């Protein structure tokens, strides 16, 4: 099966700033991917490279089996909604749809019309008079109606209130279920990622530090609590992500696919947010296990 997104040694440099470093990924087709990380980590850079909006400095990237931006056929495979959910303030909703139809050979006019009606958008309303949530939904409608194989969304709900954000994500889930489009969704909000995504990529300081199926990541991370001890004494297959100690007690976040048999440990489950935060705080924890290994 063709990977939805494939990168090998991908890097991007802007003058003196390294925006993405040695990114290696294989994301299977049809996934809904949460792309998380702090500001400046490289999320927008990766999406821009995947959309063909910029070119790599090093390495290579393929989206749906082709080089991003390489021609009309490749461009038709990718829908992209940038961080500011771009719309034209002086154009009406209807004019946006007509523009989408002219620019996209595979445009689905019936889908666009049904979404506008479902959302209650007035076709005669200028985009500049819409609310933030309505503009985001209009941008999503345009991205979906071109009928891409993969939809790239760069923090599309960052400026929305909780109700508008929930509506946007609900519509996104319905679209994925109905049309089978793959999605890469950049977000700061782990709760949103948990709600709609089945795959995770975490970036810190321009590097991938964690990647894989969300269910697998949750299942293979554990919190160990027990008498104080040196984490270096753990079995080799128990990779320590984070450690804290008191005078008498040690608490570890470990990653392992093997059962934890040491009776001195109390083993607890760990939620996705705690896992992500641990890697954000200790990005070097990923260095001994390349992200490529866990993208199955």
TrEMBL record:
Give the matching Pfam families.
ABC_tran (PF00005)
> Per its UniProt record, what Gene3D superfamilies does this chain match?
P-loop containing nucleotide triphosphate hydrolases (3.40.50.300)
> Which GO molecular function annotation, any one, does this entry have?
ATP binding
Q: Which residues form the ABC transporter domain?
A: 5-230
Instruction: Indicate yes or no for the key word Oxidoreductase.
Output: no
Name the keywords, alphabetized.
Answer: ATP-binding, Nucleotide-binding, Transport
Tell me yes or no: is Hydrolase among this UniProt entry's keywords.
no
Report the superkingdom from the record. Bacteria
Tell me which InterPro entries the record gives: AAA+_ATPase (IPR003593), ABC_transporter-like_ATP-bd (IPR003439), P-loop_NTPase (IPR027417)
Which family does the record assign?
Belongs to the ABC transporter superfamily.
> Which named protein is this?
ABC-2 type transport system ATP-binding protein
Question: Which species does this protein come from?
Answer: Saccharothrix longispora
């Amino acid at each position: 099966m063709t990977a939805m997104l494939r990168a090998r040694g991908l890097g991007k440099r802007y003058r003196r700033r390294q925006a993405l470093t040695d990114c290696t990924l294989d994301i299977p087709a049809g996934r809904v991917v949460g792309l998380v990380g702090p500001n400046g980590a490289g999320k927008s850079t990766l999406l821009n490279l995947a959309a063909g909006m910029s070119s790599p400095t090093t390495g290579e990237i393929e989206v749906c089996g082709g080089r991003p931006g390489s021609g009309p056929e490749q461009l038709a495979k990718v829908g992209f909604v940038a961080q500011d959910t771009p719309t034209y303030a002086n154009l009406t909703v209807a004019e946006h749809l007509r523009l989408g139809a002219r620019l996209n050979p595979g445009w689905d006019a019936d889908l666009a019309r049904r979404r506008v009606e479902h959302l209650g958008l007035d076709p005669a309303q200028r985009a500049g008079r819409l609310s933030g949530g309505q503009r985001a939904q209009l941008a999503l409608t345009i991205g979906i109606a071109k009928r891409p194989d993969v939809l790239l969304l760069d923090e599309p709900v960052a400026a929305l209130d909780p109700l508008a954000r929930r509506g946007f994500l609900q519509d996104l889930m319905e679209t994925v279920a109905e049309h089978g489009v793959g999605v890469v969704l950049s977000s700061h909000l782990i709760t949103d990622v948990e709600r709609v995504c089945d795959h995770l990529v975490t970036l810190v300081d321009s590097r991938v530090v964690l990647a894989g199926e969300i269910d697998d990541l949750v299942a293979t991370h554990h919190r160990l609590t027990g008498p104080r001890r040196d984490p270096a004494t753990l079995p080799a297959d128990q990779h320590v992500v984070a450690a804290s100690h008191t005078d008498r007690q040690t608490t570890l976040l470990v990653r392992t696919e093997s059962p934890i048999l040491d009776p001195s440990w109390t083993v607890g489950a760990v939620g996705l947010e705690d896992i992500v935060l641990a890697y954000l705080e200790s990005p070097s924890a990923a260095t001994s296990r390349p992200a490529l290994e866990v993208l199955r």
